[in-house]
Amino acid sequence: MNWTWFHKLGSPKWFYEISGRWLPWFAVAAALLLGVGLVWGLAFAPPDYQQGNSFRIIYIHVPVAFLAQSCYVLLAVAGLVGLVWRMKLADIALQCAAPIGAWMTFIALVTGAIWGKPTWGTWWIWDARLTSMLILLFLYFGIIALGQAIANRDSAAKACAVLAIVGVVNIPIIKYSVEWWNSLHQPATFTLTEKPAMPMEMWLPMLVMVLGIYCFFAAVLLLRMRLEVLRREARSSWAKSEIKALVGAA
Amino acid sequence: MSSVFALLLARESRLLFRRPAELVNPLVFFAIVIALFPLAVGPESQLLQTLSPGLIWVAALLAVLLSLDGLFRSDFEDGSLEQWVVAPQPLPLLVLAKVLAHWLFSGLALVLLAPLLALMLGLPARCLPVLLLSLLLGTPILSLLGAVGAALIVGLKRGGLLLPLLILPLYIPVLILGSGALQAALQGLPATGHLLWLASLAMLAVTLLPFAIAAGLSISVGE
Protein backbone atom coordinates (compact mmCIF):
# COMPACT_ATOMS: atom_id res chain seq x y z
CA MET A 1 0.00 0.00 0.00
CA ASN A 2 1.14 3.48 -0.81
CA TRP A 3 1.48 5.65 2.30
CA THR A 4 2.71 8.88 0.71
CA TRP A 5 -0.67 10.55 1.18
CA PHE A 6 -0.46 9.78 4.88
CA HIS A 7 2.97 11.35 5.26
CA LYS A 8 1.95 14.29 3.13
CA LEU A 9 -0.77 14.96 5.71
CA GLY A 10 2.00 15.83 8.11
CA SER A 11 3.03 18.80 5.99
CA PRO A 12 1.17 21.97 7.01
CA LYS A 13 1.74 23.56 3.61
CA TRP A 14 0.22 20.62 1.75
CA PHE A 15 -2.70 20.57 4.15
CA TYR A 16 -3.28 24.28 3.72
CA GLU A 17 -3.41 23.92 -0.07
CA ILE A 18 -5.60 20.84 -0.16
CA SER A 19 -7.98 22.05 2.56
CA GLY A 20 -8.40 25.32 0.69
CA ARG A 21 -9.70 23.28 -2.22
CA TRP A 22 -12.02 21.14 -0.05
CA LEU A 23 -13.41 23.90 2.11
CA PRO A 24 -15.83 25.48 -0.40
CA TRP A 25 -17.27 22.07 -1.24
CA PHE A 26 -17.97 21.26 2.39
CA ALA A 27 -19.36 24.73 3.03
CA VAL A 28 -21.71 24.61 0.03
CA ALA A 29 -22.79 21.05 0.83
CA ALA A 30 -23.45 22.01 4.45
CA ALA A 31 -25.50 25.07 3.49
CA LEU A 32 -27.53 23.13 0.92
CA LEU A 33 -28.14 20.05 3.07
CA LEU A 34 -28.94 22.00 6.21
CA GLY A 35 -31.22 24.37 4.31
CA VAL A 36 -33.11 21.56 2.57
CA GLY A 37 -33.23 19.42 5.71
CA LEU A 38 -34.48 22.23 7.94
CA VAL A 39 -37.24 23.37 5.59
CA TRP A 40 -38.25 19.78 4.87
CA GLY A 41 -38.18 18.69 8.50
CA LEU A 42 -39.69 21.78 10.07
CA ALA A 43 -42.36 22.52 7.47
CA PHE A 44 -43.16 19.52 5.29
CA ALA A 45 -42.59 16.34 7.29
CA PRO A 46 -45.87 14.95 8.70
CA PRO A 47 -46.60 15.77 12.37
CA ASP A 48 -46.16 13.04 14.95
CA TYR A 49 -49.39 11.28 15.94
CA GLN A 50 -48.69 11.74 19.66
CA GLN A 51 -46.39 14.74 19.94
CA GLY A 52 -47.90 16.81 17.13
CA ASN A 53 -45.53 19.47 15.87
CA SER A 54 -43.31 19.59 18.94
CA PHE A 55 -41.37 16.57 17.72
CA ARG A 56 -39.88 18.65 14.89
CA ILE A 57 -37.01 19.76 17.09
CA ILE A 58 -35.74 16.22 16.59
CA TYR A 59 -34.31 17.43 13.27
CA ILE A 60 -31.88 19.61 15.16
CA HIS A 61 -31.52 17.67 18.40
CA VAL A 62 -30.59 14.26 17.00
CA PRO A 63 -27.98 15.31 14.39
CA VAL A 64 -26.29 17.61 16.90
CA ALA A 65 -26.23 14.93 19.58
CA PHE A 66 -24.83 12.51 17.00
CA LEU A 67 -22.04 14.89 16.13
CA ALA A 68 -21.31 15.69 19.77
CA GLN A 69 -20.59 12.05 20.49
CA SER A 70 -18.61 11.24 17.37
CA CYS A 71 -16.55 14.39 17.80
CA TYR A 72 -15.13 13.01 21.04
CA VAL A 73 -14.10 9.82 19.24
CA LEU A 74 -12.45 12.01 16.62
CA LEU A 75 -10.50 13.74 19.40
CA ALA A 76 -9.24 10.40 20.66
CA VAL A 77 -8.31 9.20 17.16
CA ALA A 78 -6.49 12.47 16.47
CA GLY A 79 -4.76 12.10 19.82
CA LEU A 80 -3.64 8.57 19.02
CA VAL A 81 -2.33 9.61 15.58
CA GLY A 82 -0.54 12.55 17.18
CA LEU A 83 1.06 10.39 19.86
CA VAL A 84 2.06 7.50 17.60
CA TRP A 85 3.17 9.28 14.43
CA ARG A 86 4.03 12.63 16.00
CA MET A 87 1.88 14.34 13.40
CA LYS A 88 1.42 18.02 14.15
CA LEU A 89 -1.75 18.27 12.13
CA ALA A 90 -3.39 15.72 14.40
CA ASP A 91 -2.51 17.89 17.39
CA ILE A 92 -4.05 20.88 15.66
CA ALA A 93 -7.16 18.87 14.77
CA LEU A 94 -7.58 17.76 18.37
CA GLN A 95 -7.41 21.24 19.78
CA CYS A 96 -9.56 22.78 17.07
CA ALA A 97 -12.27 20.11 17.31
CA ALA A 98 -12.69 20.20 21.09
CA PRO A 99 -14.56 23.54 21.33
CA ILE A 100 -16.83 22.55 18.42
CA GLY A 101 -17.67 19.32 20.21
CA ALA A 102 -18.39 21.18 23.43
CA TRP A 103 -20.74 23.57 21.60
CA MET A 104 -22.54 20.69 19.92
CA THR A 105 -23.01 18.96 23.27
CA PHE A 106 -24.34 22.19 24.71
CA ILE A 107 -26.80 22.65 21.83
CA ALA A 108 -27.92 19.03 22.18
CA LEU A 109 -28.63 19.62 25.88
CA VAL A 110 -30.50 22.87 25.23
CA THR A 111 -32.64 21.50 22.39
CA GLY A 112 -33.30 18.43 24.52
CA ALA A 113 -34.49 20.64 27.36
CA ILE A 114 -36.78 22.58 25.01
CA TRP A 115 -38.17 19.32 23.65
CA GLY A 116 -38.53 17.78 27.09
CA LYS A 117 -40.79 20.51 28.44
CA PRO A 118 -43.88 19.75 26.27
CA THR A 119 -43.33 15.98 26.01
CA TRP A 120 -42.09 14.93 29.45
CA GLY A 121 -43.43 17.92 31.33
CA THR A 122 -39.99 18.86 32.62
CA TRP A 123 -37.01 20.44 30.96
CA TRP A 124 -34.45 18.52 32.97
CA ILE A 125 -34.52 15.16 34.63
CA TRP A 126 -31.68 13.02 35.95
CA ASP A 127 -32.10 10.44 33.28
CA ALA A 128 -29.29 8.29 31.92
CA ARG A 129 -28.86 9.80 28.48
CA LEU A 130 -29.26 13.38 29.64
CA THR A 131 -26.76 12.79 32.40
CA SER A 132 -24.23 11.15 30.12
CA MET A 133 -24.49 14.09 27.71
CA LEU A 134 -23.80 16.40 30.64
CA ILE A 135 -20.79 14.29 31.58
CA LEU A 136 -19.62 14.46 27.97
CA LEU A 137 -19.77 18.24 28.22
CA PHE A 138 -17.60 18.08 31.33
CA LEU A 139 -15.12 15.81 29.53
CA TYR A 140 -14.87 18.40 26.74
CA PHE A 141 -14.35 21.14 29.32
CA GLY A 142 -11.55 19.10 30.88
CA ILE A 143 -9.73 18.77 27.56
CA ILE A 144 -10.16 22.44 26.72
CA ALA A 145 -8.99 23.48 30.19
CA LEU A 146 -5.94 21.25 30.06
CA GLY A 147 -5.01 22.55 26.61
CA GLN A 148 -5.27 26.13 27.86
CA ALA A 149 -3.35 25.49 31.06
CA ILE A 150 -0.14 24.12 29.53
CA ALA A 151 1.91 26.85 27.94
CA ASN A 152 4.11 24.66 25.75
CA ARG A 153 2.14 23.89 22.58
CA ASP A 154 3.53 20.41 21.97
CA SER A 155 3.16 19.21 25.55
CA ALA A 156 -0.35 20.64 25.69
CA ALA A 157 -1.33 18.65 22.60
CA LYS A 158 0.21 15.45 23.94
CA ALA A 159 -1.40 15.86 27.36
CA CYS A 160 -4.79 16.45 25.73
CA ALA A 161 -4.24 13.37 23.59
CA VAL A 162 -3.59 11.17 26.62
CA LEU A 163 -6.66 12.58 28.37
CA ALA A 164 -8.84 12.07 25.29
CA ILE A 165 -7.71 8.47 24.95
CA VAL A 166 -8.36 7.70 28.61
CA GLY A 167 -11.72 9.41 28.24
CA VAL A 168 -12.75 7.49 25.16
CA VAL A 169 -12.03 4.18 26.89
CA ASN A 170 -14.14 5.43 29.76
CA ILE A 171 -17.08 6.65 27.68
CA PRO A 172 -18.70 3.22 27.14
CA ILE A 173 -18.24 2.41 30.83
CA ILE A 174 -19.78 5.73 31.83
CA LYS A 175 -22.61 5.23 29.35
CA TYR A 176 -23.53 1.77 30.57
CA SER A 177 -23.13 2.52 34.25
CA VAL A 178 -25.32 5.59 33.91
CA GLU A 179 -27.89 3.68 31.89
CA TRP A 180 -27.98 1.04 34.58
CA TRP A 181 -28.46 3.77 37.12
CA ASN A 182 -31.60 5.30 35.61
CA SER A 183 -33.24 5.57 32.21
CA LEU A 184 -36.33 7.34 30.89
CA HIS A 185 -35.13 8.59 27.50
CA GLN A 186 -36.39 6.77 24.44
CA PRO A 187 -33.82 4.49 22.79
CA ALA A 188 -31.83 5.87 19.86
CA THR A 189 -34.20 7.15 17.19
CA PHE A 190 -31.82 7.14 14.30
CA THR A 191 -29.54 4.32 13.24
CA LEU A 192 -28.16 3.53 9.83
CA THR A 193 -27.88 -0.19 10.48
CA GLU A 194 -31.47 -0.98 11.37
CA LYS A 195 -34.73 -0.44 9.56
CA PRO A 196 -36.06 2.94 10.71
CA ALA A 197 -38.94 2.86 13.17
CA MET A 198 -40.30 6.10 11.79
CA PRO A 199 -41.95 6.46 8.37
CA MET A 200 -39.81 7.31 5.36
CA GLU A 201 -41.08 10.87 5.01
CA MET A 202 -39.93 11.63 8.57
CA TRP A 203 -36.69 9.68 8.31
CA LEU A 204 -35.35 11.16 5.07
CA PRO A 205 -35.15 14.79 6.26
CA MET A 206 -33.32 13.45 9.31
CA LEU A 207 -30.77 11.73 7.06
CA VAL A 208 -30.30 14.99 5.15
CA MET A 209 -29.82 16.88 8.40
CA VAL A 210 -27.29 14.37 9.74
CA LEU A 211 -25.24 14.56 6.54
CA GLY A 212 -25.55 18.35 6.59
CA ILE A 213 -24.35 18.69 10.15
CA TYR A 214 -21.31 16.51 9.39
CA CYS A 215 -20.46 18.69 6.38
CA PHE A 216 -20.90 21.75 8.58
CA PHE A 217 -18.56 20.22 11.15
CA ALA A 218 -15.97 19.44 8.46
CA ALA A 219 -16.16 22.98 7.12
CA VAL A 220 -15.84 24.64 10.53
CA LEU A 221 -13.05 22.28 11.58
CA LEU A 222 -11.09 22.96 8.38
CA LEU A 223 -11.54 26.70 8.82
CA ARG A 224 -10.28 26.60 12.38
CA MET A 225 -7.40 24.30 11.48
CA ARG A 226 -6.31 26.49 8.55
CA LEU A 227 -6.20 29.51 10.82
CA GLU A 228 -4.21 27.59 13.42
CA VAL A 229 -1.79 26.29 10.77
CA LEU A 230 -1.21 29.84 9.54
CA ARG A 231 -0.67 31.02 13.09
CA ARG A 232 1.86 28.30 13.83
CA GLU A 233 3.71 28.57 10.52
CA ALA A 234 3.62 32.37 10.50
CA ARG A 235 7.40 32.53 10.16
CA SER A 236 7.67 30.33 7.08
CA SER A 237 7.75 32.01 3.68
CA TRP A 238 4.69 30.24 2.22
CA ALA A 239 2.57 31.27 5.17
CA LYS A 240 3.80 34.84 4.92
CA SER A 241 2.79 35.05 1.27
CA GLU A 242 -0.58 33.43 2.07
CA ILE A 243 -1.25 35.95 4.80
CA LYS A 244 -0.20 38.79 2.52
CA ALA A 245 -2.60 37.51 -0.14
CA LEU A 246 -5.43 37.24 2.42
CA VAL A 247 -4.87 40.70 3.85
CA GLY A 248 -4.42 42.19 0.41
CA ALA A 249 -7.67 40.64 -0.77
CA ALA A 250 -9.59 42.07 2.19
CA MET B 1 12.58 -6.18 38.12
CA SER B 2 10.49 -7.24 41.11
CA SER B 3 13.30 -6.13 43.42
CA VAL B 4 13.04 -2.62 41.98
CA PHE B 5 9.33 -2.76 42.64
CA ALA B 6 9.89 -3.75 46.28
CA LEU B 7 12.65 -1.16 46.74
CA LEU B 8 10.49 1.59 45.35
CA LEU B 9 7.60 0.51 47.51
CA ALA B 10 9.83 0.67 50.60
CA ARG B 11 11.22 4.08 49.61
CA GLU B 12 7.78 5.54 49.03
CA SER B 13 6.49 4.20 52.33
CA ARG B 14 9.44 5.67 54.18
CA LEU B 15 8.89 9.02 52.52
CA LEU B 16 5.19 8.96 53.34
CA PHE B 17 5.85 8.21 56.98
CA ARG B 18 8.23 11.12 57.27
CA ARG B 19 5.35 13.46 56.48
CA PRO B 20 2.49 12.00 58.52
CA ALA B 21 0.42 15.16 58.11
CA GLU B 22 0.03 14.41 54.41
CA LEU B 23 -1.38 11.02 55.29
CA VAL B 24 -3.77 12.34 57.90
CA ASN B 25 -5.07 15.35 55.99
CA PRO B 26 -7.24 13.40 53.53
CA LEU B 27 -8.75 11.44 56.42
CA VAL B 28 -9.63 14.60 58.30
CA PHE B 29 -11.06 16.05 55.10
CA PHE B 30 -13.15 12.90 54.63
CA ALA B 31 -14.54 13.16 58.18
CA ILE B 32 -15.28 16.88 57.86
CA VAL B 33 -17.16 16.48 54.57
CA ILE B 34 -19.27 13.72 56.10
CA ALA B 35 -19.94 15.92 59.14
CA LEU B 36 -21.08 18.79 56.91
CA PHE B 37 -24.05 16.88 55.54
CA PRO B 38 -26.05 16.35 58.75
CA LEU B 39 -25.52 20.05 59.39
CA ALA B 40 -26.77 20.95 55.94
CA VAL B 41 -29.75 18.61 55.48
CA GLY B 42 -30.81 18.25 59.11
CA PRO B 43 -30.18 15.60 61.76
CA GLU B 44 -33.15 13.37 60.81
CA SER B 45 -31.77 9.84 61.14
CA GLN B 46 -34.09 8.30 58.53
CA LEU B 47 -33.04 10.82 55.87
CA LEU B 48 -29.36 10.46 56.74
CA GLN B 49 -29.57 6.69 56.47
CA THR B 50 -31.13 6.94 53.00
CA LEU B 51 -28.47 9.40 51.88
CA SER B 52 -25.52 7.68 53.56
CA PRO B 53 -24.33 5.48 50.63
CA GLY B 54 -24.04 8.48 48.35
CA LEU B 55 -22.55 10.73 51.01
CA ILE B 56 -19.83 8.27 51.97
CA TRP B 57 -18.89 7.62 48.39
CA VAL B 58 -18.80 11.27 47.31
CA ALA B 59 -16.72 12.17 50.36
CA ALA B 60 -14.32 9.26 49.77
CA LEU B 61 -13.97 10.20 46.12
CA LEU B 62 -13.10 13.81 46.91
CA ALA B 63 -10.69 12.79 49.66
CA VAL B 64 -8.81 10.44 47.34
CA LEU B 65 -8.69 13.05 44.61
CA LEU B 66 -7.35 15.78 46.87
CA SER B 67 -4.74 13.49 48.37
CA LEU B 68 -3.41 12.81 44.86
CA ASP B 69 -2.83 16.42 43.95
CA GLY B 70 0.80 16.40 45.02
CA LEU B 71 1.51 12.75 44.24
CA PHE B 72 4.33 13.40 41.79
CA ARG B 73 5.18 16.98 42.72
CA SER B 74 8.18 16.46 45.00
CA ASP B 75 9.61 13.82 42.67
CA PHE B 76 9.19 16.26 39.81
CA GLU B 77 10.86 19.09 41.65
CA ASP B 78 13.90 17.17 42.90
CA GLY B 79 14.48 15.48 39.55
CA SER B 80 13.70 11.89 40.56
CA LEU B 81 11.04 11.72 37.87
CA GLU B 82 13.62 12.34 35.19
CA GLN B 83 15.63 9.46 36.57
CA TRP B 84 12.54 7.28 36.43
CA VAL B 85 11.93 8.17 32.80
CA VAL B 86 15.47 7.28 31.75
CA ALA B 87 15.71 4.22 34.03
CA PRO B 88 16.12 0.81 32.36
CA GLN B 89 13.07 -0.48 34.24
CA PRO B 90 9.73 0.07 32.54
CA LEU B 91 8.14 3.32 33.69
CA PRO B 92 4.62 1.87 34.08
CA LEU B 93 5.96 -0.58 36.67
CA LEU B 94 7.64 2.16 38.69
CA VAL B 95 4.50 4.22 38.51
CA LEU B 96 2.41 1.30 39.70
CA ALA B 97 4.69 0.89 42.74
CA LYS B 98 4.35 4.58 43.54
CA VAL B 99 0.55 4.58 43.31
CA LEU B 100 0.34 1.32 45.22
CA ALA B 101 2.41 2.74 48.08
CA HIS B 102 0.23 5.81 48.17
CA TRP B 103 -2.94 3.72 48.19
CA LEU B 104 -1.63 1.32 50.86
CA PHE B 105 -1.44 4.17 53.32
CA SER B 106 -3.94 6.83 52.37
CA GLY B 107 -6.51 4.70 50.53
CA LEU B 108 -6.50 1.87 53.01
CA ALA B 109 -6.75 4.25 55.97
CA LEU B 110 -9.79 5.77 54.30
CA VAL B 111 -11.36 2.34 53.92
CA LEU B 112 -10.76 1.65 57.60
CA LEU B 113 -12.17 4.99 58.71
CA ALA B 114 -15.31 4.70 56.57
CA PRO B 115 -17.25 2.19 58.73
CA LEU B 116 -17.06 4.49 61.76
CA LEU B 117 -18.45 7.44 59.80
CA ALA B 118 -21.03 5.17 58.16
CA LEU B 119 -22.32 4.06 61.56
CA MET B 120 -22.51 7.70 62.63
CA LEU B 121 -24.72 8.36 59.62
CA GLY B 122 -26.98 5.52 60.72
CA LEU B 123 -25.99 2.86 58.21
CA PRO B 124 -26.97 -0.50 59.74
CA ALA B 125 -24.07 -2.74 60.77
CA ARG B 126 -25.13 -5.50 58.36
CA CYS B 127 -24.13 -3.23 55.46
CA LEU B 128 -20.57 -2.80 56.68
CA PRO B 129 -19.04 -5.79 54.82
CA VAL B 130 -20.40 -4.43 51.53
CA LEU B 131 -19.15 -0.95 52.40
CA LEU B 132 -15.66 -2.26 53.14
CA LEU B 133 -15.54 -4.46 50.07
CA SER B 134 -16.84 -1.78 47.71
CA LEU B 135 -14.34 0.76 49.02
CA LEU B 136 -11.52 -1.80 48.88
CA LEU B 137 -12.27 -2.44 45.21
CA GLY B 138 -13.14 1.14 44.33
CA THR B 139 -10.42 3.25 45.92
CA PRO B 140 -7.55 1.70 43.89
CA ILE B 141 -9.41 2.69 40.71
CA LEU B 142 -9.83 6.20 42.09
CA SER B 143 -6.13 6.39 42.95
CA LEU B 144 -5.00 5.17 39.53
CA LEU B 145 -7.36 7.43 37.56
CA GLY B 146 -6.41 10.39 39.72
CA ALA B 147 -2.74 9.61 39.16
CA VAL B 148 -3.28 10.03 35.40
CA GLY B 149 -4.48 13.56 36.03
CA ALA B 150 -1.75 14.25 38.57
CA ALA B 151 0.85 13.10 36.05
CA LEU B 152 -0.52 15.36 33.33
CA ILE B 153 -0.53 18.51 35.45
CA VAL B 154 2.57 17.90 37.56
CA GLY B 155 4.60 20.48 35.64
CA LEU B 156 2.04 23.25 36.07
CA LYS B 157 2.57 25.91 38.69
CA ARG B 158 -1.12 26.41 39.36
CA GLY B 159 -2.80 23.14 38.62
CA GLY B 160 -5.01 23.13 41.71
CA LEU B 161 -8.53 23.19 40.38
CA LEU B 162 -7.57 21.52 37.13
CA LEU B 163 -7.19 18.02 38.60
CA PRO B 164 -10.82 17.68 39.76
CA LEU B 165 -12.01 19.16 36.48
CA LEU B 166 -10.11 16.54 34.48
CA ILE B 167 -10.71 13.54 36.65
CA LEU B 168 -14.12 13.81 38.32
CA PRO B 169 -16.08 12.95 35.15
CA LEU B 170 -13.98 9.79 34.86
CA TYR B 171 -14.86 8.82 38.44
CA ILE B 172 -18.57 8.52 37.70
CA PRO B 173 -18.75 4.76 36.98
CA VAL B 174 -16.98 3.97 40.27
CA LEU B 175 -19.33 6.30 42.12
CA ILE B 176 -22.42 4.71 40.58
CA LEU B 177 -21.28 1.14 41.18
CA GLY B 178 -19.92 1.76 44.67
CA SER B 179 -22.89 3.64 46.02
CA GLY B 180 -25.18 1.29 44.09
CA ALA B 181 -23.72 -1.69 45.93
CA LEU B 182 -24.26 0.03 49.23
CA GLN B 183 -27.78 1.11 48.31
CA ALA B 184 -28.62 -2.48 47.38
CA ALA B 185 -27.22 -3.73 50.69
CA LEU B 186 -29.23 -1.10 52.54
CA GLN B 187 -32.44 -2.32 50.91
CA GLY B 188 -31.58 -5.94 51.67
CA LEU B 189 -30.84 -6.82 48.05
CA PRO B 190 -27.76 -8.76 46.90
CA ALA B 191 -24.86 -6.46 46.02
CA THR B 192 -22.75 -9.08 44.24
CA GLY B 193 -23.42 -7.70 40.77
CA HIS B 194 -22.17 -4.25 41.62
CA LEU B 195 -19.16 -5.63 43.45
CA LEU B 196 -18.19 -7.89 40.55
CA TRP B 197 -18.42 -4.93 38.20
CA LEU B 198 -16.22 -2.91 40.52
CA ALA B 199 -13.74 -5.78 40.64
CA SER B 200 -13.53 -5.99 36.86
CA LEU B 201 -13.08 -2.23 36.59
CA ALA B 202 -10.30 -2.50 39.18
CA MET B 203 -8.57 -5.16 37.08
CA LEU B 204 -8.91 -3.00 33.99
CA ALA B 205 -7.51 0.00 35.86
CA VAL B 206 -4.53 -1.88 37.29
CA THR B 207 -3.57 -3.30 33.90
CA LEU B 208 -4.11 -0.28 31.64
CA LEU B 209 -3.82 2.91 33.64
CA PRO B 210 -0.12 2.60 34.60
CA PHE B 211 0.63 3.03 30.90
CA ALA B 212 -1.46 6.19 30.73
CA ILE B 213 0.20 7.55 33.88
CA ALA B 214 3.63 6.76 32.42
CA ALA B 215 2.71 8.55 29.19
CA GLY B 216 1.54 11.57 31.16
CA LEU B 217 4.73 11.65 33.21
CA SER B 218 7.00 11.47 30.17
CA ILE B 219 5.09 14.38 28.62
CA SER B 220 5.40 16.46 31.78
CA VAL B 221 9.08 15.64 32.20
CA GLY B 222 9.84 16.29 28.53
CA GLU B 223 8.44 19.79 28.71
From TrEMBL, chain A:
One of its GO terms (cellular component) is plasma membrane. Residues 13-185 form the Cytochrome c assembly protein domain. Its main location: membrane. It is a multi-pass membrane protein. It comes from the Bacteria. It is found in: Cell inner membrane; Membrane. InterPro entries: Cyt_c_assembly, Cyt_c_biogenesis_CcmC, Cyt_c_biogenesis_CcsA/CcmC. GO terms for biological process: cytochrome complex assembly. Keywords: Cell inner membrane, Cell membrane, Cytochrome c-type biogenesis, Membrane, Transmembrane, Transmembrane helix, Transport. The chain crosses the membrane at residues 22-45, 57-85, 92-116, 128-147, 159-178, 202-223. Pfam families: Cytochrom_C_asm. One of its GO terms (molecular function) is heme transmembrane transporter activity. Belongs to the CcmC/CycZ/HelC family. Required for the export of heme to the periplasm for the biogenesis of c-type cytochromes. This is Heme exporter protein C. It comes from Azotobacter chroococcum.
UniProtKB/TrEMBL annotation, chain B:
InterPro entries: Cyt_c_biogenesis_CcmB (IPR003544), Cyt_c_CcmB_bac (IPR026031). This is Heme exporter protein B. It comes from the Bacteria. Its main location: membrane. Keywords: Cell inner membrane, Cell membrane, Cytochrome c-type biogenesis, Membrane, Transmembrane, Transmembrane helix, Transport. GO terms for cellular component: plasma membrane. Pfam families: CcmB. Belongs to the CcmB/CycW/HelB family. It is found in: Cell inner membrane. The keyword Disulfide bond does not apply. GO terms for biological process: cytochrome c biosynthetic process; cytochrome complex assembly. Required for the export of heme to the periplasm for the biogenesis of c-type cytochromes. The chain crosses the membrane at residues 21-42, 54-72, 93-118, 130-154, 161-182, 194-219. One of its GO terms (molecular function) is heme transmembrane transporter activity. It is a multi-pass membrane protein.
